[in-house]
UniProtKB/TrEMBL annotation:
Gene Ontology MF: a single term: acyltransferase activity, transferring groups other than amino-acyl groups
Ranges where the N-acetyltransferase domain occurs: 13-185
Name of the protein described by the UniProt record: N-acetyltransferase domain-containing protein
CDD domains: NAT_SF (cd04301)
Length: 392
């Protein structure tokens, strides 16, 4: 598996920062040549709406590096740095995403060079760790990051996807109240209740909640509850940043989509959720900061998810065709219970997400990588993983 990364580049490669005026058109071509899929049967295309760095632009500190051979862009990588709570300490982490190398130039070491240059940029901005996300069946990615660059797998989140039925609202339970929180209220609740229960909680949660893409935060509660059960979540609108399109999918999915389009109105009358047309560009609402306390709080989480579904279904533009949430897929209890309460379609969801991490500046203090690896394996994870919407 590692052999595919060991061939050296036989042409001079220059790594430099992305220049929007000079590189935008070539960068769009690189993106199109590197469309991604969850497996051999599925191909997912991303439209950055004319902004190749749209996925990191909302981060507090970010960069994009490009690999150039001659006057031709042959690869790229993006990264951002932010302060988070990790293992009970405030640290700075660098997030690696968007590693692209055009097919003709793969297996020549360009991917390794891009990652190492980005890690140098992380260190120059005082990042303690670098982390990235991939899928467990992506052998090339795991061979590079885990096999060659010494990253360690530390979490296996699950991505839950629920389709939106345009014009059809779900009926919420009459015994549950839902209230939109002010930004200061939401920030206070997150800092008082969520920080101690989660890993990677962003220290700048206030900036996230005030971001123009953050639609708001809602809390759910029982109207006649004397015990104090409650739940909350925040909503991020990805449709204003990029669009997705499924370009290749299993035949069964294609047929189900066609049937849903043909009999959509009838299915709605029967109370059946039809499958949206994901073969045309679509956006989504991303749910983050999902948290619940008290008995029967799972029902409150479900009500909040259905509330967001109703928000999407009532939008006139119909841009958000699915609602997405990512929860930790480990066996540590709480998130596993939450995932059973979150409405989703299994055929659209993904249980194969994999987060990997590597120490940067703190590596010398830990007497080598093996000690860090053992620490990750031994340490008991907190009950949930906070997924920053800026990383989506």
């Amino acid at each position: 598996m590692l052999g595919q990364w060991e061939e050296e580049v036989d042409e001079e490669v220059m790594i430099r920062c992305y220049d929007e005026r000079r590189d935008r058109i070539q960068m769009e071509r690189v993106e199109k040549s590197c469309e991604i899929g969850h497996d051999d049967q599925t191909l997912l295309s991303t439209d950055s709406l004319g902004d190749p760095i749209c996925r990191i632009r909302n981060s507090p500190l970010f960069t994009m590096l490009v690999a150039e051979v001659g006057n031709k862009l042959v690869g790229s990588i993006q990264g951002s740095v932010k302060p988070v709570e990790y293992h009970g300490k405030s640290v700075r982490v660098g997030y690696v995403l968007g590693l692209r190398v055009v097919s003709r130039y793969r297996r020549r070491g360009i991917g390794s060079i891009l990652v190492r240059k980005l890690e140098e940029w992380f260190v120059s901005h005082n990042a303690d760790y670098a982390y990235m996300a991939t899928e467990k069946d992506n052998e090339a990615s795991l061979g590079l990051f885990v096999g060659k660059l010494s990253y360690v797998v530390f979490r296996n989140p699950t991505i839950l996807v629920n389709p939106v039925n345009p014009g059809r609202s779900s009926k919420l339970p009459s015994d549950i109240g839902i209230r939109m929180l002010k930004v200061k209220e939401a920030e206070s609740l997150y800092r008082r209740h969520v920080v101690a229960t989660t890993e990677f909680f962003p220290d700048d949660i206030d900036r996230i909640l005030r971001n123009k893409l953050s639609v708001g935060t809602w809390a759910a509660y029982y109207k006649d509850d004397n015990i104090g059960s409650w739940a909350m979540l925040s909503v991020w609108d990805s449709s204003k940043v990029f669009k997705l399109t499924i370009k290749k999918a299993p035949l069964s999915y294609l047929l189900l989509t066609k049937v849903s389009n043909l009999f959509g109105k009838l299915l709605s009358l029967l109370g059946i959720t039809s499958l949206p047309d994901l073969f045309t560009p679509f956006g989504f609402y991303f749910l983050y900061g999902v948290y619940a306390e008290g008995p029967l709080s799972g029902k409150l989480v479900r009500a909040l998810c259905e509330h967001v579904h109703n928000m999407s279904a009532s939008d006139d533009d119909g841009a958000r065709k699915v609602v997405v949430v990512e929860v930790d897929g480990g066996s540590n209890g709480d998130d596993d219970a939450l995932s059973r309460c979150i409405p989703h379609w299994k055929m659209l969801s993904c249980e194969d997400d994999m987060w990997c991490i590597k120490p940067l500046q703190c590596e010398e203090k830990m007497n080598g990588f093996s000690e860090f690896s053992n620490m990750c394996l031994r340490s008991k994870p907190r009950s949930s993983l906070f997924v920053d919407p800026r990383d989506v």
